[in-house]
Amino acid sequence: MAKPLFRLQKLLLRTQFLLFFLTAAYLMTGSLLLQRARVALPPGPRAPGPLQALPVAAVALGVGLLDSGALQAPRVSPELLLGVDVLRRPPARPRPGPRGLRSRNSELPPLRRRRWFHHLAGDAQGPPAPGPEAPRPAASSRGTYVGCFSDSGHDRTLRGTVFFDLRKMTVSHCQDACAERSYVYAGLEAGAECYCGNRLPVRSVRPEACNHECKGEKGSVCGGVGRLSVYRVEDLQLSSRKRRTVTYRGCFRLPENGTHTFPDSLTQANATVDACSGFCSQKEFPLAILRGWECYCAYPTPQFSLRDAVDNSLCGQEPEAQSLAQYCEVYQTPVQDTRCTDRRFLPTKSKVFVALSSFPGAGNTWARHLIEHATGFYTGSYYFDGTLYNKGFKGEKDHWRSRRTICVKTHESGQREIEMFDSAILLIRNPYRSLVAEFNRKCAGHLGYAADRNWKSKEWPDFVRSYAAWWSSHVLDWLRYGKRLLVVHYEELRHSLLPTLREMVAFLNVSVSEERLLCVENNKEGSFRRRGRRPHGPEPFTPEMRALIDGYIRTVDKALRDHGGTGLPGEYVPR
C-alpha cells in the first residue's frame, strides 16, 4: 500500500516542477513578445533595449534591405535607412511582373517596418531626416548622369522630342529615343516621361528632388514632379543608329527676302549634307538647308512651307554657282519639330460634346494624333486602351463624359449611343484597308501584323462577313441619328492634310496658328503607324468577299450623296 502512495507523491512532485518550468517559459516568451511589440509603437522616450545596442548596419543586414554595396560604407546614416524603407515599401496597387522578383520584405506591413526603422535609426544615431533618399541613377545606362534639373510645362528645360511610356519607361529606352534623333541630352520626369534636347541650364537642383523610380526599371532614378533626371547620351544601339537618317525633302525656291528668314546658318568650304544636318540637329532645328557652301537651319513657315518643290536639276549646279542661285536643297533632320508638342486638358468643361467616330481600323488613332497636336488639347475615348495611354494619349484614362477633352473617340453605333453627342467628326476609310488594319490589330496589336496562319484560318472569312456589315451600318447610323456631322475621308486627310485638318479644327471651334499647323504637317506620322509592308503576299480578299464589300460600298456612297455630301472617294468606289 505504501509503494503506490509513494509513487503518486513522486509523480505529483515532478508535475509541480514541470508546471513551474512551463510557467517560467511562458512568462519569458510573453516578455520577449511584449518587448518585440514595443517596436511597433510610435517613437518616444524609452530606455535603451537590447536591440538598440546592435549596430545599425547589422540590424539592416539582418532584415535583408540593404545591398552589400551600401554596407561597405564606413557609416550607414538614418537617412539611408529611411530612404530604403520608403523605396521598398509595397505600392498601393500590385505591380506587374513575376512575383519572384519582388522583395520578400515588401510583403511586410509598411507601417510596422517604417516605425521599426524610426525606432532603431533614431535611437542609435539621432532623429531621422524628413525626406527619403532618391533612387540612384541607373548604373547600366550608356550615358553619363548629369544631374537633377527643374522643369515646367510652360518652360521646358529640354525642348526637343517628347516621349511617354507610363508602364515600361527605362533610362536606356529614353537614351536610345533621344540619340536616334541626334540629341545630346535625355531627361526623364515623373518616372514615365522622356524629354530630349541639346541645351541645359547652368544651375541644377538638389539631387534628392529627383526621387521617382522609372516605371520599367526598379531602383533607377527617373526624375520627379517637375524635376528632370538628365543623362548625356554617349553610346547608341545599332538599331537606333540605323533609324537616325536624314530625309531629302526636295529642291525649293528661296523665300522672297532670301536667307534672312532662316534663324541660324553656317558657311564653310566643302559643306556636306551630313555636316549641315549635324549642325542643325545640334541647334534643334528640323530642317537643314544647303545652298552651295552655305548651310541654314529653319522651321517650316508660311513663307517657306515646302509645298512648291521645283525640278531637282535647279539644285544640281556647282556649289560656287548655286550660292548665287535662288534655289536650295532641303533635308529633314532627325530632330522633331517641337512647336506643336505641348498638350493639356481643356481649362473649363466643354459645352459641346463632340465625338470622333469611326469604324475600327479607319485611322482614328492617327486622327487623334493630328487633332491633339493641332489644337494643343487631349482627346478622350469611350474605351480605355492601356497601350495608347502608355504612349502619351493621356485623355485615354479620363472619363469619356468629363468634357475635359476636345473630342471623344468612339466606334459605337446605334441611336442611343449617337444621340449622347452634340456633334461628331465621322471618319470614313476604304473598307478593304480598314478590315485589314483591324484584323492586324486584333491579331498583333497596334503596330504589328497578323501572321500568315491567321489569314489562312477560318477566322479571316468570318471576320470579313461580320465586320464588313458593321462598316456599312456604322456610317448609315451616324448619318441617320447624328445631330451635326463633319464627314472626313481618311484618303483626303492623307492626300490633303492641311486643308482637311483646318476644316476639322474649325469644326471643333479652336483657333490655330499657321505655324502650328505646319508643325503638325512636319510631324504628321506620329508613333502609331505600322512600318513596312504586310508580310503576307497573296491577296486576302476572295471574289465572294469583294462582291459582298462592293455592295456595302455602293450603299454607303448613295447614302452620303442623299445626305448632301460628295459620296465616297472615287478611288475605291466600284464602277
TrEMBL record:
Region annotation (Disordered) ranges: 121-141
Keyword Transmembrane: yes
Keywords: Membrane, Repeat, Transmembrane, Transmembrane helix
A Pfam family this chain is assigned to: WSC
Protein known as: WSC domain-containing protein 1
Domain WSC per the UniProt entry, residue ranges: 142-234, 245-340
Name of the gene: WSCD1
Family the entry assigns: Belongs to the WSCD family.
Recorded GO MF terms: sulfotransferase activity
InterPro entries, sorted: P-loop_NTPase, Sialate-O-sulfotransferase, Sulfotransferase_dom, WSC_carb-bd
Transmembrane residue ranges: 12-34
Keyword Membrane among UniProt keywords: yes
